[in-house]
Amino acid sequence: MKQDNTTITHAIARFAFLFFFILLPMGASSQASFTIRWQKCLGGSHDETPGAVFPLDDGFFVFGETYSDDGDVSGFHGKPFYFKTTHGITMNSPDVWALKLDLGGNIIWQKCLGGTDGERFHFGEIASDGTCLAVLETSSKDGNLGIVPEDRKIAFVFLGPNGEIRMCHLFGGTNGETPFGFFQNSSGEFTIIGNTFSNDGDVVNAHGNQDIWIFTFDHAGKILYQSCIGGTRNDFVFRFKKCPLGGAFLLGNTDSFDYDMFQETGWWLYSKLWGTSLERKYLDYYGELPIPEVPWVMRLDQYGKTVWFKVFSRKDEYSFQDIAPTSDGGVVIVGNGRSWELEKVIEPPFLMKLSASGKMEWKKSLGIDESDLIFDVIETLDKDFLVCGKTSGRKGIFPEYHGNDDAMVIKLSSTGEVQWKKCFGGSKSDQASSLYQTEKGRFFILGSSDSNDGDTSGNHGKGDAWLLELDEKGAILRQRLFGGSGFDTLNSLVKSKDGSYLLLGYTRSKDGDVQGLHGSFYDIWIVSVK
Predict the structure, then answer these.
(1) Are 481 and 457 a contacting pair, CB within 8 Å?
(2) Distance CA 42, CA 161 (A)
(3) Tens digit of pLDDT for each residue in 365-418?
(4) Bridge partners of 48?
(5) DSSP string spanning 21-60?
(6) Among the listed residues 431, 412, 415, 413, the one whose alpha carbon sits nearest the alpha carbon of residue 423
(7) Picking from 132-146, 303-317, 332-346, 489-503, which range would have the lowest pLDDT averaged per residue?
(8) SS3 assignment for 316-385
């Protein structure tokens, strides 16, 4: 009996040793991880770049761009990858590449959209009838999108469930246009938002140089309404977000001080024309006054008409990064603050709230260093706000800071008060690029990491894509690095119809998590995780 007790005691000791000396030191590596259900490299022997992925009941639509005509790609319209011109050796222009995948990631069909002079994918969505609506930029005078007589134009494509081009409308003038997004109103009409250098063709009443171009059209491609907004210098949109109440919010910059921009910026510029001695020296040396870009925000109704338009003049001294519509019809703006004075004074990043009528309700500092950067903002299910970016860890604001750049996430109340702020990473460079919230109130953070310690584990080499899941208080529930020994990035996340998640990006790896790379260039990389 004594021998049996000794045996039991030794067994307990061995178990305790295993627990305390093996399991506990695992740290970050003991956290739950995401499981890869399947992954696919999509492409050929030359470059492919990702655009967007859209879940369907029986699979997925994927958009991107391709320079290949082998591997998974057929029907490419362009020239050889590198070809001779009068200016030397030039890389070819891409086709837009559309694919349908089944639920296991296998290609059902693929189609190259474009001609010999190059196309770009900008925006898309799935209609209720299974049609995919895509906004492209095209420069080709041949191919399957139509004939573009001058420069580049906006192409609006109706792509059927089997990849057939049901309809394609071309819009623009002779000097080139770039689209940024579109939405559909309750009457079935479409509004496209973009930038234009033209003042002919479909474009009327432009002010000069680059304007913001907004136009609404019907299914037949007839323009019903349009407007050009700006001044005689450069005016452009760089962020587009649909409004839950219909229409959209636009974010952009301008360095004009006349026409539509005069009311906010012109008075300041003219009053300062012979302002500070430093500006007079600049004017004497360069022959012109330095005119900075200032941000603007616009709200459109569902028909593409302006509800309000607010230009933040130089006296406001803001640099905006992103916007997010709010449930009350307003919008929040996140900025990496800076002054445009020639002495360039930096202020810390901030969050600003505008009402449904465009009135500023509040502006709050995020309580971080001026060298830190913010990349994304969302409204949470509880009507608060979440922002993400990267921090250099200065001033000891983050006690858990790991070194170099860390990924940073900050939760704020509905009135802009900081509730909690966290940084994640290891001893090398890490950042958080985009935010998503689940129906359960948890958060997905998508970013990149070079680290293999601290909060990270399993780095494959060079840059890996990084996905984290946080609880409502910012604690890590699970994390995983995705990639191989080459450079890998995953820059968008969508929920699949079966409850899993799809990550879309590109890769140059042939090992690690990556299998099936087609050449020595980049492939589109799609990963299904649970």
Answers:
(1) yes
(2) 19
(3) 999 998 899 999 999 999 999 999 999 998 889 999 999 999 999 999 999 999
(4) 66
(5) IIIGGGGGGGSB---EEEEEEE--SS-EEEEEEEEETTEE
(6) 431
(7) 332-346
(8) CCCCEEEEEECCCCCEEEEECCECCCCCCCECCCEEEEECCCCCEEEEEECCCCCCCEEEEEEECCCCCE
Pairing of β 501-507 and β 88-91? unpaired
Q: Cα(444)–Cα(466) distance, rounded to whole angstroms?
A: 10
Looking at residue 485, what DSSP letter applies?
Answer: S
- Exposure string (b/e) for 141-174, b if CB count within 10 Å is 16 or more? eebbbbebeeebbbbbbbbebebeeeebbbbbbe
The total of other beta-carbon atoms located within 10 Å of residue 209's CB is 16
pLDDT at 425 over 70: yes
Q: Rounded to whole angstroms, how far apart are CA atoms 100 and 112?
A: 12
The pTM for the full model equals 0.88
124, 41, 150, 139: which is closest to 94 by C-alpha? 139
Q: What is the pLDDT of residue 88?
A: 62
Tokens of 177: 């246009």
**Distance between CA 13 and CA 122 in Å, rounded?**
62
